[in-house]
Please model this.
Amino acid sequence: MSGTLAFSPWPNGASAAVAITFDVDAEAGWLAEGEEYRRRLTTLSEARFGITRGVPRILELLGALDVPATFYVPGETAERHGAALLAAVEAGHEVGHHGHRHLRSDKVGAAAQREEIERGLEALERTFGLRPRGYRSASWEITPETFSLLGEFGFDYDSSFMGDDRPYWEEHDGNRMLEFPVHWSLDDWPYFAWSIEAGGNLAPPAAVLDVWLRELDSVIEDGRLMTLTMHPEVIGRGHRIGVLASFIAAARERAQVWFASHGQIADHLGVR
Ligand SMILES: [Zn+2]
Model:
């Protein structure tokens, strides 16, 4: 049976915890969609914007506000942009595993799923000199095969499922994994990302901030953990980065909120 964890009280009397997380898909996010993207240089340049402009903006903001974050990085992104992302590691942020080529596990066979885990681990170890403790699947899809690989490769926690809005044990086929749940409403992509094929919303930043703060109010009320998921090429636009700044400031005005990486939260829960 799945069960939630006894996670309260949070450290130093905080009434809630917030994990700021980024999925650094960059070019890998598009290249995984098909070979035709190798020729779509404009689309790839928008992805690259996340590295050239998004990550520096994010690191400056988090540094100024003294907030740690978790960056889930595909192995290919680490290989392509290691120097830029090393700045996040040097600033004390956590790096998590986000596949290698950002292939969706439900779209490929068992061998490719294993390769995604293995090559992603190798790339992160080679680039950053660390072994990630946390995993987040590409597009949040996980198959039974990939779920069992997480246990086999010794991950401490995952952040891809939506079965609760508290930390909980995700269980399949006799394996279990500490889960820091996510949700589409707490992800910048559905609000802001626009593509020529699929269109999108290009939502007003204030509307997104409103949703996230309403969720935060419920999180504080219950003493829960809230995980926000963002993409540097999305939230890192000049008119959007203020959403993150305003969210952190508003959280601190509302209550004592513990901003922590997923690794710090796992340590607090005593799971490793
Ligand atoms: Zn991703």
Observations:
- The chain has a mean pLDDT of 95.
- The CA atoms of residues 10 and 51 lie 33 Å apart.
